[in-house]
Amino acid sequence: MDNKEVVIKQIIVVTDGESNVGGNPVDAAKEAYRKNIIVNTIGIVDQKQEDEKPLTEIIDIAEAGGGIYEYTYIDDLYQTMQSVTYKTVNRTIQEAVNKQLKEMIGQNLDDMTPASRSKILNYIDTYSDEIAIQCCILMDTSSSMANKILSARYSILDLIDSFKNRKGKVSTAVIAYPGEAREGYRLVLNFDEDLKELERRLYEVKTKGTTPTAPAIHYAMEIIEDYNNINHPEEILKLEDAIG
Question: Per the database entry, which stretches of residues form a coiled coil (predicted)?
Answer without folding.
Answer: none
